[in-house]
Amino acid sequence: MAVAVTTAASTALCAVLSSAPATAAADSATNSAANSAITPPGIVYSVVNLWPESGGTALLNERGQAVFNSFNYYGATNGFFDGDRVHPIGTLGGTYTLVRGLNNLGVVVGSSEDAAPRSNILGFTWTAAGGMRALPGTSVASAEDINDLQYIAGLNAETGISSRAVRWNPGGALVPLGPQPFSLSIAHAINRQNIATGYGDAASGAITAMLWDASGRRTDLGTLGGTRAFGLHINERTEVAGRSDTANSPNEQAFFWSRLTGMVPIDGGGPLTDVTSLNDRSEAVGYALRNDQRLFAYKWTPTGGLARLPGYPLADSFASDINNAGEIVGTVQWPGGQGATFSRAVRWAGLTTPIDLNSRLYRAPPGLVVQYGQAINEAGVILANSNAGLVMLRPGTRGTDAPVLGPITTLPRTVELGQDLTLTVNFIDNSPSQTHQASVVWTDGCPSPAPIVREAGGVGQVTLRHRFCAAGFQAVRVRVTDSAGRSTELVQDVTVDDPALASVSGAGTLRLGTGAAPVGRASSAAPLHFSLWAPLGGDTNRAPAKALVLSGPFHFRGEQIGVSRAGQVAHVSGTGRFNGRAGYRFTLEAHDGGSQSGAPDRLQVRITHVDAVTGAEVVDYDNAAPATLTAAAATLDRTVVDDGGVTLRD
């Protein structure tokens, strides 16, 4: 890897900082109509860069703390933001940690690989003061959620079954929940009454939503008439929201359950309705798929039913989270032509016109685009994905003492070997007297000039120059450090094509609504980001290493990869790690539509593993045929690449 470092030049910026990258500029043009509908200026948000990579798990608590993990070129990464600084979470000695839950005391839970010769996957708790502690359990366990009384819901493998729903008490004692299931049960979420929800199966093969009370007694919540239902969210009223298939119909619906109402469908009128959040006022939000394959965000209440959230013309919308004040965050997405889409993070104040959060950013660096609103707490703090990674949006005008970075501009997802690149990173600092230095790492190991920093009055720009000398999956890592020692980092993956080497390459995003079986507490509608590179034919032994990385509602990294070609379709298969765990198989078909009279590029992905107890194949993800419950949403083509593309090079 090549490393270059420079200090800031004491020269004023000439004219205006460089504009946003081409995609961001196009974003702005596409969204100009929406901007005119934005409500008048009101609350503003300061930006805090949390993590260079977005698209992974990100959780927010009421103290404005956050925990997150992602998988990129550098492998599995994770961190905890204490409101001021990011702390690494680490592992139990293995190669990865997956975060699942965060309470308001700053306690993180999840699963982590240990250092045993035949590694175990163990549940854990972590605090900034005490570090990571393994929870009691067998060789496969996961802590899924934790309440403020330190009770933890999750799963633990038992003899003869894949997993059993469990609760860990504050002292660490492991308590099995309910009777042993036929093959599996999982507790996903827990409230302050120590009541958990999740799902379990029976000998008939049916999977039903479950509720376990504080003593561990089980209540079977049933289904919406079908054979599978999942309890995903629980509030302080012990109301549950989740997802179920329906009787005599391919449709899949969200549901709301209470002791008063029983299980009630949340039906958006199309083939698929999903629920992403439930607050303590019995209000649920999510998205629904229409018969014409358009997505719309909704809010649902027991008395008012489902109400479509206002949007913009020609835009899909998706609601991610709702707080107890009824504030909702999510995304609107416009088609941009030529396989591109443009996404904006938005906030709804109830059933009002959404506010583009980009219009409310205080002193944001040029080029920064906030794309997906993920979470909002009672104070109005928001977690969001951006083109500069995961960010926190804090109400007010003071966000952080560290530099605030925009994206690495003008770096396309795919470049050619030997192509000269001139890149920029814009930054803002809340202290106009600070000076800054920058460093950069290019993973191809090739030399490059030191970065050039220009700044004046707390506004600056870093200029980078490089020529990649190695094909394959590469990355660039940029760090900007102020004179007080505070630093912020960006990482961007890039695919480098060799014109002399036949290959399949691609990078981008599959459309919102990409179906997946429930994975932790992540929504199945989270966009799936992909990076792919592999040689086709020829002397592949001399070619760079093959690479496949998927991130979003789950994380997958290919390890053993084989590839073949049939016309304009590349067939890729092999093994890899799903959410850090080894032993998963995948098959992938990459369609280069651009070579077929402008047809859309497509990426078909299927990931499976073999159940260690039953020996049966388990589908973890399949975007060609819904991997959720039934044949629901069969009309939705989830293989289309919405943003980015696939290229087969001869």
Q: Kindly report the spatial arrangement of strands forming the biggest sheet.
A: 34-36-39-38-1-37-40-41-35
Instruction: Report the helical percentage.
Output: under 10%
- Provide mean pLDDT, rounded: 86
How would you characterize the largest beta sheet?
A: 9 strands, mixed
Query: How many beta-strand segments?
Result: 50
Characterization of the model:
With 650 residues, the chain is mainly beta. Among the domains are: 91 residues, no CATH class; 91 residues, Immunoglobulins (Immunoglobulin-like, Sandwich), CATH 2.60.40; 147 residues. Helix content is 2%, strand content 54%. It is built from two helices and 50 strands. The strands form ten sheets. A nine-stranded mixed beta sheet has the order 34-36-39-38-1-37-40-41-35, with no helix packed on it. A nine-stranded antiparallel beta sheet has the order 49-48-47-46-45-44-43-42-50, with no helix packed on it. The longest helix has 9 residues. The chain is globular, with a radius of gyration of 24 Å. The two termini are 29 Å apart.
